Amino acid sequence: MALALALIFFYVPNDADQGYSQRIFYFHVPIAITTYCLFGWGAVNAARYLWKRDPSLDLKSYVPMHLGVIFGSLTLVTGSIWANISWGTWWFWGDTQLTTFLIIFLFNCAYFMLRFSVEAGERRATYSAVYALLGVGLIPLSVLGVRFAQSNELIHPITFNSNGANMDGSMFLTFLVALSAMLTLAVTMYLVELRGKRIDDRLRTIRRLAEGRA
Amino acid sequence: MIAELAAKSVYGEFAVKSVAAVYGLAWIVTLAYVAILNAKFARLERQLDEIASLMEAAADA
Q1: Distance between CA atoms of A207 and A209, rounded to whole angstroms?
Q2: In chain A, at which residue ranges do the beta strands (DSSP E only) sit?
Q3: What is the largest CA-CA distance in chain A?
Q4: Is residue A72 within 8 Å of residue A35, measured between CB atoms?
Q5: Contact criterion met (CB < 8 Å) for A193 and B37
Q6: pLDDT (tens digit, 9 = 90+) per residue, A8-66?
Q7: How distant is the Cα of A82 from the closest Cα of chain B, in angstroms?
Q8: pLDDT tens track for A164-184
Q9: DSSP code of A144?
């Protein structure tokens, strides 16, 4: 992360079109990609849960969904700050990518309403898993669907297209370092939170047993 | 330093402040997450102490 910040502020040149504000891109896009990865990983574990019915996979599906919402909130806020500079408005409903990302984000926020409205157990895990799988189906709509939209609807910058990355070498290097840093941060947060929740579960079990003996 | 950076930018000081807001926000969210996790682990530690007390009481009885 330190290397990414050093490259962003001391190495990469100002963008010819967007100037200094383009530096927002090096955090905004990796955060957005990390959000998709977290929702994707949540859905993979949801599918594994439905197949194997192992309760630990339900937890492995829940934690990335929770982190995905945190990263998704950051994506929306950082994107709005960038839009305020570039478009002169915090939000533009006419932008397909913005709107589809918001739909995915809100859909995944509702995951928690569903999860906590059902009592803990197999039924809750099954409902949550099915919902997580439905949510991940919306991601291709945001990533690929907007590229098939009519060109006059596209005002959101497209970082990658069929010709590769739309940036020069130093910018692409900085972007890759920032993306690696963000993915590493997300994986670390995932592992720490997962471990915390497992310890919490085991402590509850031990407490029940200890109270039974005391 | 902000004034120097702003002079070099296309959109001036507003862009510098906006970039600072984005990176500051990411930093604050990460710190808040660490603080919440720290509180959670402190709670787990307290629960562990309570369980240890219960086990000791059961062993003494």
Answers
A1: 5
A2: 160-161, 164-165
A3: 72
A4: yes
A5: yes
A6: 878 887 776 777 778 888 889 999 999 999 999 999 999 999 999 888 899 999 999 99
A7: 7
A8: 667 788 888 989 999 999 999
A9: T
In 3D space, the residue among A9, A172, A156 whose CA is nearest the CA of residue B23 turns out to be A9
Residue position matching structure tokens 């596209």: A154
A25 inside 8 A of chain B by CB:
no
- Write the CA distances from A119 to A114, A127, B56, integer angstroms: 10, 11, 33
Residue A65 near residue A38 (C-beta atoms within 8 A):
yes
Per-residue model confidence as pLDDT tens digits over A83-105: 888 888 888 887 778 888 899 99
Of A22, A28, A34, residue with least CA distance to A77: A28
Task: Considering only the beta carbons, identify the residue of B11, B33, B40 that sits closest to A20.
Answer: B11
In the block, tokens 């570039």 appear at A86
Q: Is the ipTM of this structure higher than 0.85?
A: no
A179 in B contact zone (CB under 8 Å)? no
Strand pairing class (A160-161; A164-165)? antiparallel
Within 8 A by CB and 6+ apart from A29, the residues are A159, A175, A179
Helix segments in chain A, DSSP class H: 2-10, 25-52, 55-86, 96-115, 122-136, 139-143, 169-213
CB A177 within 8 A of CB B21: no
Give the span between the Cα atoms of A63 and B33, in whole angstroms: 13
Whole-number Cα distances in Å, A91 to A27, A139, B13: 19, 20, 21
Q: Is B34 on the interface with A (CB under 8 A)?
A: no
Contact A203 B44 (CB under 8 A): yes
Kindly tell me if the per-residue pLDDT of A162 is higher than 70: no
| Mean pLDDT on A148-152 | 56
User: What's the confidence (pLDDT) of residue A182?
Assistant: 93
> Contacts of residue A21 in chain B, CB cutoff 8 Å?
9-11, 15, 18-19
